[in-house]
Every structure is written in structure tokens, then in C-alpha cells.
Amino acid sequence: MITFLVCLALLVAAYFTYGRYLERLCGADAGRPVPSAVSFDGVDYIPMPMWKTFLVQLLNIAGLGPIFGAVLGAAYGPVAFLWITFGGIFMGAAHDFIAGMISLRNNGASLPETVGTYLGNGVKQLMRVFSVGLMVLVGAVFLSQPASLIANRIDAPALSGIVFGDFSWLLLIVLGVILVYYIVATLLPVDKIIGRIYPVFGCALLFMALGILAVLLFSGKYTIPEFTSFRNQIADAARFPIVPMLFTTIACGAISGFHATQSPLMARCLGSERQARPVFYGAMISESIIALIWAAVAMAFWNGVGGLNAAIAEYGGQAAVMVDAIARDTLGEVLAGFVIFGVVACAITSGDTAFRSARLIVADFMGVEQRSLRKRICISVPLFAAGLVIIFCLPFQTMWSYFAWMNQTLAMVTLWMITAFLNRHGRNRWVGLIPATVMTYVCSSYVFVSPLMCGMRDRAAAYLLGGAVTLVLLIILIFKMRRDAKSLP
After folding, report:
1. For a Cys-Cys bond, which of 7, 141, 253, 286 suits 66, CB 3.0-4.6 Å?
2. More confident residue, 230 or 161
């Protein structure tokens, strides 16, 4: 319990300390014109109240990550608390805030465009393809999983018993309903659906986490394990070492590249640069707190890490079923239904904004204005078609694993952009450089360690290769930043 409470306190304190330092570092200026005023279009560039942009940003970035990822990542032991806390403070929240500030300063530009400004045209072209691919993959994951959750909760034998390939008719109907919502939310102005219902879902997400926290702290039924060592406690530690596997299992609660693709959506809706810290840094800290709570309850509910690993094996790694079991026992049948509703809402509200981000990224690099509904439809249709192909052709575990690596690779590139931004403006580049180097090593070593990629059995060789890739990239980017600094007036 002490480890958990200390980590919780550090996360809260970081918003008022490190978050304020980053705000000064970036020179947030309430008097500087913002995109919602300069480029108002009534579709994507629309000013909204700060409380609303905060809740929308929280729902945009939360998804299934701080719940499913935290429950599965807790299998590594209380070391997960440290990754969520320090990763969230110094990596994830800093990543989200500064990426958001960079987008603000570039008229709400999408991530590939801002990356190109600071890392060059070649990286920009690569990031355009990579970012759109990741957004479609995220949309597919967050379309299939809430549909599965809803279909499993509906008692309709007449529909669920009839199958089409690997999909029941019930599941196909639910998929279709969610897809229709995604299409509408992607095409309509941001304040029509997203700006109206997301704040409600955001409050539900926070209340759900606070309910679990109250049970943990005051019921007297559960004991949260303490951090005593860095020992890897996952069931198959040889195949799943802490570095890099924990760093990709728990992404959204610590650092996630997906967030940097969502920041431009709200950068186009802020009324002032001084709103960036609560909206970007504050939303990420809130997500880390949610992840911390779910990691703690996962360990406590099954009487320790060993019990959690046994439960993961029993349920076949189906985090949704495990979350349902936790909610039923801790909050009761009725409130458990609200928890599952909250989980579904988290997934759906990240899935639709993933497709919306993909539309904006494509529109930005093709130079297609988005006032016209016809042009929004022309861009969106191929994106939704690609998402459906992924759902019907790839198993969920494969989708999730590649999403995990692509997500953290995107975070790595964003951190290098942040480093170049700070370097160009003569500010403390270490804020970006240290996290960028860490995430470069995580992503490169994952390629050689993960069973779904190279899966090398020789861990020493895998880590050596990951280190070599990291070193090469570090040298290249440092020389590039030095060259850029010399060319500035």
C-alpha cells in the first residue's frame, strides 16, 4: 500500500511542479493567437471551454490502454508502479504537453507535419504513412474490442449462435452499429458529437477509477503488494523481460505515441496557450493515475502477483473478462455494468478520434480543405475500408502486438522531434533527449526480443543489437541537431 500511495502522491504533485516547469520552458503565452481563432472553420478549428477540452483529450488518449494494459502489465509485479509513475511524469506527460504546444505553435498541424518541421522532409514522409497506418490500426482494434464486449454481454442465442466465418451475426450487427457511429463522428464538426458526449464519458471514466480506488483504500479486503526489488514476476520471465516488454505492455498509462496524434485535435480547440498544461499534461497525469489504480487492483484482487499470473493464464489473457470479474466483485453487479460501459466508452471514444486523426493527417499532407463534407467523405471511406480489412484478416493478439510496437515507435519519433524543438530554441534539450534515448532502446530491442518479431533466444545478443541501433540513431540525430543549430541566425 505504501508504494502505491507514494506513486499516487508523486503523480498529483508532478502536475503542479514538473508540469509548471515545462510550461515555463515552452514559454506558454496567454496573449499569443491560437489556431481556433486564427483558422476557425466550424469543423475542426472550433474554440471550446477548457474543462471540455480536458475531458475530450482524456477520452481521446485513454482507450483500453490504462485499463487493459495496466491489468496485464501488473503481472510483471510492483515494478509496474514505478514505470507508470516515472514514465508518466517525465516521459508521457512531457511528451503530450510539448507535442501539444508544438502543434499549437504550428496552427494545429498534425504530427507528421510538425515532425517534418524539426526532423526533416524525409522523416515527415515516413511519418505520414506510419501515422495513418497506426491510426487505422488503432481504429480497427477499438472497433473490434468494444463490439466483442457488447456482444458477449447481450443474451441473444438466436443471433450469437449463427456464425459467419469467425464472427457471429450478433457481433457483426454490433460492429456495424459502432462503425456507423465512427463514420458520423469522423465527419461531423468536432463540437457536434465529440464535444457534447465525450465530457460525460470522461466524468464516467474518472468516477469509475475513483470507485475502484475507494474500494482499495477503505474496504479492508485487499492488500496491494509493495515494491521490494526489480525482479520480473511474470509467469514466463525468460520470454517476456521487463525491458522492453513491460514498456510496451503498459503504454497509455506511461507514454504512448498515439497521444501525440490526438493533441492536434484539441490544439485546434484551445482558447489560450495557458490551457495547454491542464489539457495535455493534466490529461496524461490523470490517465497515469487511472492506470496505477487498475494495476493495483489487479494485483490485490487475485491476492498478489502470482495469483494475477494464474488468472491471466486461466482467462487466456482476455483483459476484458478480468476487468469484468474485478468490477463484479468490488462494486457489485449493477455498478459492474457501468464499469463495462465505461470500458466500452473508452475504446469507442479513442477509435473514432483515431479515424478522425487519420482524416486530418491525410488532409494536411494532401492540402485538402475540410469545410466540404464531400471532401471529408472522400478521404474517410478508404480509411474505414482499410480498418475493416484489418479486423477480418488479423487476429486480435497480432493486431494488439503490432499496435504496441508501432505506438511506442511513434512516441520515440515524437520525443526526438521534441528534443529538436527544444534544441532549436536554445532550451533544456535533456527534457526530450533522455526519454528519446530510452524509448529508442525500448523500441529497437523489442524488435529483437519480441516473439512476434525476431524473437531471439540469445538475450545478450538481442540487447546488444538494440543498443547498437540506439547508438547509431543517437549519433545521427545529435549531428543533425548540431547542424541545424549552426544554420540558425
Report:
1. 253
2. 230
If one compares 296 and 182, the residue with the highest pLDDT of the two is 296
Do 357 and 110 form a contact (C-beta atoms < 8 A)?
yes
Lookup result for grid cell 493567437: 33
Neighbours of 82 (CB within 10 A): 15
Residue 164's beta-bridge partner residues?
167
**Three-class DSSP category at 168:** strand
Q: What is the average pLDDT across 216-220?
A: 85
CA distances from 201 to 144, 193, 196, 205 (A): 19, 12, 10, 6
Side chain identity, residue 2: I
Longest dimension (CA), the chain: 72
Query: Which of 11, 263, 230 shows the shortest CA–CA distance to 114?
Result: 263
SS3 content of the chain, % helix, strand, coil (to 5): 75, 0, 25
Q: What is the DSSP letter of 226?
A: P
Query: 371 Cβ partners below 8 Å, 6+ apart?
Result: 41, 42, 43
DSSP assignment of 417-475 equals HHHHHHHHTTS-THHHHHHHHHHHHHHHHHHHH-TTTT--S-HHHHHHHHHHHHHHHHH
**3-class SS at 270?**
coil
Q: Using the CB atoms, write b or e for 177-190: b if 16+ within 10 Å.
A: ebbeebbebbbbbb
Provide the Cα torsion 333, 315, 229, 437; round to 10°.
-100
- In whole angstroms, what is the distance from residue 412 CA to residue 126 CA? 14
Domain assignments of the chain as residue spans, ordered by start: 1-397
For residues 76 and 249, give the distance between their C-alpha atoms in angstroms, rounded to a whole number. 10
Taking the C-alpha atoms of residue 67 and residue 90, their distance in angstroms, rounded to an integer, is 21
Q: Which is more confidently placed, 397 or 52?
A: 52
Q: What is the pLDDT of residues 309-350, one digit of tens each?
A: 999 888 877 777 788 788 878 777 777 777 777 777 777 877
* Alpha helix segments (H runs only) across 39-191: 50-62, 70-73, 79-87, 93-105, 111-119, 121-153, 157-160, 169-187
69/349 Cα distance (integer angstroms):
17
Q: Who has greater pLDDT, 79 or 388?
A: 79
Cα–Cα distance for residue pair 291/131, rounded to 1 Å = 25
Give the contacts of 479 (CB within 8 A, at least 6 positions apart): none
Please answer whether residues 319 and 108 qualify as being in contact, where contact means their C-beta atoms are separated by less than 8 angstroms.
no
User: Which secondary-structure segment (H or E) carries 306?
Assistant: helix 305-314
Confidence of residue 149 (pLDDT cuts 50, 70, 90): confident
Q: DSSP letter at 62? A: H
Architecture category of domain 1-397 in CATH: Up-down Bundle (1.20)
Residue predicted with more confidence, 381 or 400: 381
All three cell numbers of 259, joined, read 497521444
